[in-house]
Amino acid sequence: MRASLLAAGALAALLSPAAAQAPAREATLRVVLSNELTSIDPVLSTAAFVRNHGFMVYDQLFAVDGKGIARPQMVESHSVSADAMTHRFTLRPGLLFHDGAPVRAADAVASIRRWGQRDVVGKALAASTASLEVIDERSFELKLSRPFGPVTDALARSTASALFVMPERVANTPATTAITDATGSGPFIMDRENWRIGDRAVYRRNPAYTPRAEPADGLAGGKVVKVERLEWLAMPDASVAASALSNGEIDFVEHPAPDLLPLLQKARGVTVGLINPVGSMVWLRINHTQPPFDNPKARQALLHAIDQKEVLQGLGIPAEDQVPYCPAYFMCGTPLESTAGAVGLRDPDLGRARTLLREAGYDNRPVVFLNGADNPLNNGSTLVLAEQFKRAGMNMDVQTLDWATVTVRRNRREPPAQGGWNLFVTIANALDAGSPLSNLYLASPCEGGLTGWPCDAKLEELRRAWWEEPDAAKRRTLLDAVHARAYEVLPYINAGQFRTKSAWRSNLTGVLPATVPVFWNVERK
């Protein structure tokens, strides 16, 4: 009954006078993603909702296809010197920003420089760069100061702080200051006047966008927009979203609550399917700067308290979509899967966890666990993990917030009792985990690192050695060394891997398999 009443409320909102003035239904696609849009700077924020926005309004120099291979996107040609130390890029002709200005090499260079100040991959590329200069209106040149093998993979960065090309005037904004201008050159134009946090973000088809000639493939290829308008609705209640989808009031739900999937699979006119074939991982992020987890033994205690299978069961993930045990930092089922150095996680050992906590000097102080409760996956995994840690003897303080607040709160470095934190959960995909280079929460650079602030020079040396090594066999050995060291440092912990299904109206065609929800190529039949 509650779900029906809430769904009725959602429908009433859609039928309000403001909604009645919207374009014809056939021209509008209405989607519900894991979180609503609350900020728009894809460099300043690593939140998935900002990345999702980025793929609407921006384009990329290179983009990853359905097999994870970097393909030219805005780039027309790319040449590399014999020693692989100099790269020259030329942009496709006719690229335009939403304000009508041409896309220039200067825009690309400024965008790379801003991105390189904050993103883990961008920082690695910047540290290996001798110069990055404009050659002419459409061409620019990157000269390396030391070997860096995955240059195009870096420029195809599509998650965390993805590399999007902005106008130079916007990209010149300090990387620590949020941009307010959403001008890009991508397939959609953001309608800033109709963006209402707590309600919806609105995008229009970009009539001046010129797609590549190739078919759409993952995040690469021809981005052909087949709807006139897209509305990204704020609908945090999973039951409301499921009812709205079943009733045809919305068209797509990125992550329906697992316990609602059986109902959606039976609903007339609804398709349930896998878009991300590798799946997702529950990342438990740890604050390395605050007790008790500033002590490595306290972090290691978590490994022996976690039961991954129980976490996945608590989320309601169907058995066929669970990976009951996965110790891999770079995700199970990928070419970079490793078990080197792995301990714990398969079966909890509460006695060992308590011993490590005592050795760490844990004094029963509250452990502040931030819970982004408006996301069912975050909420479910947080509650299960908190109970597991309580069994191991920790005094758990689960603080219920919305995810947008968590993304702000997690940047605070004060003690937990003064508004800081100890733990939070986020859901990562195969692109987030990626590799020793691209795994954003693996990086442990001390100063300048991401929230949680792990600090380990040896892990950083091993990561850098991996991306600088040209020999594949040696890179595999280095990868295992990175993995083993990560289990000593524990920048974060894999609390469970699983595949997630999406749901959409059956009259939609062209929904692309990709690790990021994208809506070019989608049309209603």
TrEMBL record:
Major subcellular site:
periplasm
Please list which residues make up the signal peptide.
Answer: 1-22
Keywords of the record, alphabetical order, are: Signal
Please name the GO terms that the record assigns under molecular function: peptide transmembrane transporter activity
Q: Which domain of life is it from?
A: Bacteria
Any Gene Ontology biological process:
peptide transport
* Solute-binding protein family domain ranges (all copies): 71-426
Q: Where in the cell is it found?
A: Periplasm
Instruction: Write out the GO cellular component annotations.
Output: ATP-binding cassette (ABC) transporter complex; outer membrane-bounded periplasmic space
PANTHER family assigned:
D,D-DIPEPTIDE-BINDING PERIPLASMIC PROTEIN DDPA-RELATED, PERIPLASMIC BINDING COMPONENT OF ABC TRANSPORTER
Q: Which family does it belong to?
A: Belongs to the bacterial solute-binding protein 5 family.
Protein name as it appears in the record: ABC transporter substrate-binding protein
Species assigned in the record: Teichococcus aestuarii
